[in-house]
Amino acid sequence: MVGRLLLTIAFILGAGFATAEVRIKDIVTFEGVRANQLVGYGLVVGLDGSGDSLRNSPFTRSSIEGMLGRLGVGNLSDEELRTRNTAAVMVTADLPPFARRGMPVDIVVSSLGDARSLHGGVLIVTPLVGADGEVYAVGQGPLAVGGFAAEGAAAQIVSGVPTVARIDNGAIVEREIDFALSSLGSIRLALRNPDLTTAYRIATVINEASLPASAQMLDPGTVEIAFSEKSRMPDVLAQIENLMVSPAASARVVVDSKSGTIVIGADVRIDEVAISQGGLTVSISESASVSQPEPFSIGETVIIPQTDIAVMQRESGFAVVGGQVSLQELVDGLNAIGVSAREIISILQAIKAAGALHADLKVI
After folding, report:
1. What are the φ/ψ torsions at residue 284 (nearest 5 degrees)?
2. What distance in Å separates the CA atoms of residue 251 and residue 233, rounded to the nearest whole number?
3. Farthest CA pair distance, the chain
4. Does the pTM of the predicted model rise above 0.70?
5. Which of 54, 141, 207, 278 could form a disulfide with 170 if both were Cys (CB 3.0 to 4.6 A apart)?
6. Are 364 and 254 in contact (CB under 8 A)?
7. Tens of pLDDT along 98-138?
8. What are phi and psi of 61, to 5 degrees?
9. CA 177, CA 316: separation in Å to the nearest integer?
10. What pLDDT digit, counting tens, does each position of 262-279 carry?
11. 219 φ, ψ to 5°?
């Protein structure tokens, strides 16, 4: 029943995907319009004794001394600096395209030392730099931790990852990345899933849209658009990204062996094969009986173990799947045998090994 349900769902998804139309913006990225990664090193304070141990994290000690020195507090000895309420962290963020000065962005804070939890901590001012070493944003604020950790004298419990936290809108953009979109005479579209047919369809749809632009497919993953009027480029791009196109789907079978999930594309074809599936189940149960001597007799109480073994063999079904069948016929043939989802995985792998499955079989 589970296998039948999964295969039915796979058929519905596969058939719908093959004929669906999507917006161009959902299957391509525009050249130059992308996010940039930022990273920074900072300190989280206000932890309830769950921060870094300064003996095992010398970089945390150096950071605390440097921070206090800049604030006018210095010359602290090792005996005077024993805090466990501070943790050294790495701060990461994605600077979105066309981000302007003063715009807030989300940041992720990750422990760098041996802190047990960042719960209740506050990130102090942390510059975030790009790959060129320039500061593009500054982060600060209270942390939101998804996990938690609790421990006692003899046991502890940890849920999630308490050493990673987020701060929504926790950084302010301080530097903009110059990118004049309207000054470009052409732009390239990069397909997220490169395919010759899909790239050809995108170029055709754009050329038939009566816009002041012409499209040309350069390769399976790139379509170049040339604009006759540079000043109208943003307006034309806004129209192009909302054009509808039918992407071509590859014949593929995806199997998740851990959960038993199977997804089969609509274009999958199978040559004529005969499939048989049988199963043997051996059940072993252990029990014990007690043998006691008669009253006033000489003897000992004896425990006698008993083992019951039962062998059950399911009748194997046999189904013949015709040549060059469609997905629906494949589903009907496998359902006729009444196999489970995990047995279907073995069947698909065997069909692929026999050379009868004309699709890419991907096991994850």
Report:
1. -120, 125
2. 37
3. 114
4. no
5. 141
6. yes
7. 899 999 999 999 999 888 889 889 999 999 999 999 999 99
8. -60, -45
9. 66
10. 777 777 777 776 666 665
11. -160, 180
**Rounded CA separation 80/158 (Å):** 31
DSSP per residue, 234-292: HHHHHHHTT-EE-PPPP-EEEEETTTTEEEE-TT-EE--EEEEEEEEEEEEEEEEEEE-
* C-alpha distances out from residue 154 to 49, 117, 147, Å: 18, 19, 21
358 and 327 in contact (C-beta within 8 Å)? no
Report whether 225 contacts 206 (CB < 8 A).
Answer: yes
Q: Which two tokens stand for residue 1?
A: 């029943």
Write the pLDDT tens digit of every residue in 184-231.
788 899 999 888 999 999 999 999 988 888 999 999 999 999 988 776
Q: Which two tokens stand for residue 176?
A: 């903009």
Q: Domains, the chain, ranges and CATH? A: 1-20+249-364 (no CATH), 23-33+179-245 (3.30.1360), 36-173 (no CATH)
